[in-house]
Each structure stands twice: as structure tokens, then as C-alpha cells.
Specification:
- Helix content is about 45%, strand content about 20%.
- With about 200 residues, it is α/β, with parallel strands linked by helices.
- It has a domain of about 130 residues: HAD superfamily/HAD-like (Rossmann fold), CATH 3.40.50.1000.
- Strands 4-3-2-1-5-6-7 form a 7-stranded mixed beta sheet, with helices on both faces.
- Strand 5, helix 7 and strand 6 form a beta-alpha-beta unit.
């Protein structure tokens, strides 16, 4: 069997975009992420409502993203991992957010979603690539002969972590680690790389 490693993006390779934007815009309500709210649709509706209320749109978020750098060590980790096996980033973020970050990581492959943006720059909606995008993608990869190994930090990563040959929590919350003690949890890229190497 061929292996493929599926990684979450935010919180694993790059800082959480919405938290960075919350700090930049001074709107604490935008700090909520999938670590806090397991229902992604509910979370996005909440975010879009706040953006509308404050008259903020894609331009302002992209200006914040331009200042975000990958988590220290992420690029070296990804570079080495990509010499060992195929790597796919599975994220619930949006193409319009991810592109500048993928540039800083030397263009790894990412599967994510897309925003619906009005000419004014207002984000008026979003299109999810598919239902339960991470689990659906992992199952599709398995159906074409891949064994999946996954790592992520949030509630929306658990299904893909549990569905594969091996799965790891990385830089997750104390609550998620306590609720899922059977999933090995790491804080350091070197430790995660060694754990992945051990199952390749």
C-alpha cells in the first residue's frame, strides 16, 4: 500500500488566521475556532455576521494574512516529510486565505474550500468542497489504494485522524487531549516527524 500524510493547516503549520484577524481588528468574538465550536457551519455563519456588522471584508482579512508566517519549524518539517512520502494539506480554510501561506511553505498541495465574495469585497457566503471534507477526502484516498496517516489539532480533524492507519494530535488543546487519550499527542515538529516515520 502507498502512504499519504494528511495534515491540517491552521494551528498545525500556520497560526490560526481568525485569531490573528481578531487581534488585528480588535474584535474578540472572532477568536472562536473549530477548537471551540465543533459545528463548522455554525461557526462560519457567526463569523460572517460579525464581519458584516463591522463592515469588514476579504481585503482586511488578506491584509492580516500577508503578515502571518508559518509556525517556526513548519516549513523544515514539511520539506523533510515531502522527501519521505506524499503529503496533502486538508483544511477547512478558503483558497482566498490559503494562497499566500502556501507560497511561504513552498506550494504544498492543499484541498480547501472557497469564499463567495461580492464586488465590494464583502464575504457573502462560502462553498464547502464536500460534506465532512476531511473524512470524505481520507476515505476517497483509501478507496484508491492509499493508507492515510493524519495529524491535526481540532475537533474537525478527529474523524480523519481516527479513520487512517495512524493519526496524531499536534499542538492540540488540553480538553481534546483529555477527551481522546488514545490518540498520541505531540507539541514538537521533530517528535511528530519521528512518529510519522515510525508508521511509514
Amino acid at each position: 500500500m502507498m502512504n499519504i500524510v494528511c495534515l491540517d493547516m491552521e494551528g498545525v503549520l500556520v497560526p490560526e488566521i481568525w485569531i490573528a484577524f481578531s487581534e488585528e481588528s480588535g474584535i474578540p468574538e472572532l477568536r472562536r475556532t473549530t477548537r471551540d465550536e465543533p459545528d463548522y457551519d455554525k461557526l462560519m455563519q457567526y463569523r460572517l455576521g460579525i464581519l458584516k456588522e463591522h463592515g469588514l471584508g476579504l481585503r482586511e482579512i488578506q491584509a492580516t494574512i500577508a503578515k502571518i508566517d508559518p509556525i517556526p519549524g513548519a516549513k523544515a518539517f514539511l520539506d523533510e516529510l515531502r522527501t519521505l512520502t506524499q503529503v496533502l494539506i486538508l483544511s477547512d480554510t478558503f483558497e482566498q486565505f490559503a494562497k499566500p501561506l502556501m507560497r511561504k511553505l513552498d506550494w504544498p498541495t492543499i484541498f480547501c474550500n472557497t469564499l463567495e465574495v461580492a464586488d465590494s469585497g464583502e464575504i457573502i457566503g462560502y462553498h464547502m468542497r464536500c460534506q465532512k471534507s476531511k473524512l470524505t477526502t481520507v476515505k476517497a484516498l483509501q478507496s484508491i489504494g492509499y493508507e492515510t496517516i493524519a495529524a491535526g489539532d481540532s475537533y474537525n480533524d478527529l474523524a480523519m485522524i481516527q479513520a487512517g492507519k495512524a493519526g496524531f494530535l499536534f499542538k492540540s488543546t488540553d480538553k481534546i487531549k483529555a477527551d481522546f487519550p488514545e490518540i498520541p499527542a505531540f507539541e514538537d515538529f521533530g517528535d511528530l516527524l519521528n512518529a510519522i516515520k515510525a508508521v511509514l
